[in-house]
Amino acid sequence: MLAGILLVAAPPAAFANSVPNAPIIGVAIRGAGSGSGSVEFSPNGDGGVGISSFTAKCTSTNGGATGSAGGTASPILVSSLTNGKVYTCRVTATNALGTSAPSNPSNTFVPISFPDAPTAVSGVPGNKRATVTWTAPASNGGSAITGYLVTPYLSGVEKQSSVFNTTATTQTVVGLANTQSYTFTVAAINLVSSGTRSAPSSPILIGLPTAPTNLSAVASPGRATVKWIAPRPTVARPSRDTS
Q: Cα(189)–Cα(195) distance, rounded to whole angstroms?
């Protein structure tokens, strides 16, 4: 009689650790700063040893510079992109064993920049106000100018700015103090934010003179001689403030 044979099943093999799976791509949009993009994604398996970092790489479909950036979570901001060019992005995940394959490509987006500074800022004073005029700058980076930020300065100190949501290049700033000399800067606004501020205007003395007094006239053939007493100045001599 044959002795019985005892069969013992081998223990199941342990799952091997590996590099992460490719992340799941989300939405890519232009970033908050000039020449940047913000890339969203989701992890898709860490290979059993945890993900240490992610890398987003954005490439242009029409000749812009390639940019990449790392991070530990979504979203990742990628800088050094070319304004006005079309981009798409992919994301990889890295753990102690290596780096995943790239994700699927994102949607396309176009980075844009801040507008240039306006030029030739000047102003005409009024009663507690000034009418400020400037020359529009280049829009820059594929985003049209949508408005302007006008900022008064008094003795070199910045005062409350006024935002004008229009492309008109002449605007009235109110709430100023009579008898004071102000300078003004102007910055253009586009979809990114306001751009660089202009050089300051020449000092503008705010206020209107009072009416002359003691008006009289003496008639003579074909003419009249008119006399009056000039009003006292209601505003001080302009300061040398160049802020």
A: 6
